[in-house]
Specification:
alpha+beta, 2 domains, 6 helices, about 25% strand
Length: about 200
């Protein structure tokens, strides 16, 4: 795209931005393919014109993870599209380079804020659902461990070492459960042996 065409679009309200995308993980090929797909999806969007795509090959870090970067210079048709890019592609950074100043209508600010709020609510809902699921799994796992101890003791008194062998739990994991079961009077401890 010629500079005169870019200037004309900016005159029509488009924004010129530099966006840095970063993808981390492994293996290297997956990271590079993911970055390629991100840029491909951005490039297909009619509301966006990618002017420069400066990609770096994925680099390996000390922890074995890979990171790939791309700095994209682009023009976008409005603030809503820029917000959509930020929300959906989570760039590492973004800089509006042109225009330096601009006026935004109240309607555009309203739409921009509502888009942002919708995404915040979506993230919050997902977080609460995952938190609730984790709490359920923790309760279920605790119950399974307690049941394993009680079932093991149904065949007779056992030491902590014997319970470790029968339940398959490591001592540091089993100890708090044994203490809890004794405190709740579900099991008793005499000397080194536990019983029902």
């Amino acid at each position: 795209m010629k500079e005169s065409e870019i200037r004309a679009k900016i005159g029509d309200g488009w924004l010129r931005v530099i966006m840095t995308l970063e993808v981390a993980g492994k293996p290297k090929e997956h990271i590079e393919e993911t970055l390629d797909k991100y840029i491909e999806n951005i490039d297909k969007d009619e509301r966006i014109e990618v002017l420069i795509d400066d990609r770096e090959p994925a680099e390996e870090h000390e922890d074995g993870m890979f990171t790939a970067f791309s700095e994209l210079e682009m023009i976008v048709d409005n603030m809503e599209t820029l917000t959509w890019l930020c929300v959906n592609f989570s760039p590492a950074s973004i800089e509006v380079i042109d225009p330096e100043t601009f006026q935004i209508e109240g309607r555009e600010i309203t739409n921009w804020l509502n888009d942002l709020l919708a995404k915040i609510h979506e993230i919050s809902k997902d977080y609460r659902e995952k938190l609730s699921g984790n709490e359920y799994l923790t309760r279920a796992m605790n119950q399974l461990i307690q049941n394993s101890v009680i079932l093991s003791l149904k065949t007779g008194n056992k030491t902590e070492e014997e319970l470790v062998k029968e339940t398959g739990l490591i001592p540091d994991t089993l100890k708090p459960f044994l203490k809890h079961l004794v405190e709740k009077k579900h099991i008793t401890k005499k000397g080194k042996e536990y019983s029902l």
